[in-house]
Design goal:
Elements (H helix, E strand, L loop, with lengths): L1 H11 L30 E5 L2 E4 H14 L9 H24 L6 H14 L4 H10 L4 H21 L8 H13 L4 E11 L5 H16 L4 H8 L10 E5 L6 H7 L11 E3 L2 E12 L9 E9 L7 H16 L6 H8 L3 E9 L5 H7 L11 E3 L3 E11 L8 H27 L2 E3 L1
Helix pairs in contact: 2-3, 3-6, 4-6, 7-14
Length: 432
């Protein structure tokens, strides 16, 4: 205040008609170079002194849109923007807590993960950088997300996992119940958890319903889980693995029993917030299931030259289908590829269950040496899969270590939620 007052006094004492900028000898019509300063200087929130800008929010929102193939309705963008801001606040708290615990995420750590992310979308990091920028996001926001997930995972290992204990008797009890439930259903489940307090529960349920609406229209469940879920499984797309209803809290288990593969639940009120469940698959415990078979495949692909008309392409596909029907065993794949100027790719150790549902239905009745009906599109090419081998999986109970690890993960997940809640409670957060 004293400095400001002194400056004001000096200004008031200038001679009449004087110009305080005259000594700078500035041109009357200056030519401006460079680019305007971006909006990164505008704070949206300040988390324990760390600024989150509007640009941070915009670029992370764009990253979410990219991850979901642009399937975000205009009337929901503002609500998603607020959720992204909440995620960025949590991310800042997680990184800050990791630094206080002397946990460091190096540039090399981030670069290794970035390489894997780029490879998963068939790009290198430079190509990914260009792609993100062209779509309104940036490599910086992706690096920040990777840093947050890595820091939080390491912090959990240091602060939580080392304090979680699971007794041998608990594991043995689970194995006994598992053997007693042989033949009953278990499910591959994904979860999105949104924390809430009782006074904000209605708004949280409304947010959950918006997410569910997008998921039921085809949005990526792992993508939304990574962005919105506040459970520790967010980093793996919300994947809970294979679970039975009785392994989950009563509220979740009761809903899971009513669901089938491909279904998304309505919002489920649970202690501390709201959960959304997605059932990806189902199977019978310790029972033979042909979908567990491990396949050896050859894929024969054909493409259509530019300018090929649809009638011409359809005629070629019909001949390709006839050739596939008479493939004559796995060795016939190369012959068909040569006949149609296609290519062959061999795949070993492919689990039937991991193929798209439509292909599973086609391949279940096929024998070794047979090929699927052609599938694909005229624009992107047509292919067939030839079955070269099929190893049926022997259903066995999980090992002691597998059950031990699952129980440990559940307890870590619960404590991680509480830890993040405490970080929010103790933080100094300003909104601008």
């Amino acid at each position: 205040m004293a400095t400001t007052a002194a400056a004001q006094d000096a200004a008031d004492q200038q001679p009449a008609g004087g110009n305080s900028a005259s000594a700078l000898k500035l041109p009357d019509n200056p030519q401006i170079f460079g680019q305007a300063m971006p909006s990164v200087i505008k704070a949206t929130a300040i988390v324990n002194g760390e600024v989150i800008t509007q640009t941070d929010v915009d670029q992370r929102l764009a990253l979410l849109v990219i991850a979901n193939s642009g399937k975000v309705p205009n009337d929901q963008v503002e609500e998603l923007r607020q959720q992204v801001l909440r995620n960025l606040i949590d991310e800042s708290l997680q990184i800050q807590a990791a630094k206080q615990a002397e946990i460091t995420v190096t540039d090399k750590d981030i670069a290794r993960t970035l390489e894997r992310v780029a490879s998963s979308v068939k790009m290198n990091p430079d190509q990914l950088t260009t792609y993100l920028k062209a779509n309104g996001s940036s490599i910086r926001t992706l690096r920040r997300q990777i840093e947050g997930e890595t820091a939080w995972r390491r912090l959990q290992q240091q602060k939580i996992e080392n304090t979680v204990s699971v007794g041998d008797d608990e594991v043995k009890a689970v194995l006994e119940r598992l053997n007693a439930s042989k033949g009953t259903e278990e499910y591959r489940v994904g979860e999105i958890f949104l924390s809430s307090t009782p006074d904000k529960m209605q708004q949280t349920i409304a947010n959950a319903n918006q997410i569910i609406g997008q998921l039921r229209q085809g949005a990526s469940f792992p993508g939304y889980a990574r962005q919105y879920s506040e459970a520790s499984t967010a980093a793996v797309g919300g994947d809970l693995g294979w679970v039975r209803p009785e392994q989950l809290p009563d509220q979740l288990g009761g809903v899971l029993r009513t669901m089938g593969p491909g279904q998304i639940s309505s919002p489920i009120s649970v202690p501390g917030g709201v959960s959304i469940l997605a059932v990806q698959d189902a199977r019978k415990i310790l029972s033979a299931d042909p979908r567990n078979a491990v396949l050896s495949l050859k894929q024969v692909s054909i493409a259509f030259p530019p300018g090929t008309s649809r009638p011409q392409a359809e005629a070629r596909v019909a001949k390709f289908a006839e050739a596939a029907r008479n493939v004559g065993g796995c060795g016939g794949a190369e012959r068909i590829a040569a006949e149609f100027n296609g290519e062959v790719v061999a795949n070993e150790g492919v689990r039937l269950r991991e193929l798209p549902q439509a292909l599973q239905e086609i391949m279940l009745p096929l024998q070794v040496g047979q090929a699927t009906r052609p599938f694909g599109s005229i624009e992107e090419g047509v292919r067939t899969l030839v079955i070269c081998g099929r190893d049926e999986a022997d259903p066995t109970a999980p090992t002691f270590d597998q059950v031990f690890n699952q129980l440990s993960e559940e307890r870590v997940n619960l404590r991680a939620r509480r830890y993040l809640r405490d970080l929010r409670r103790d933080a100094v957060i300003e909104f601008r």
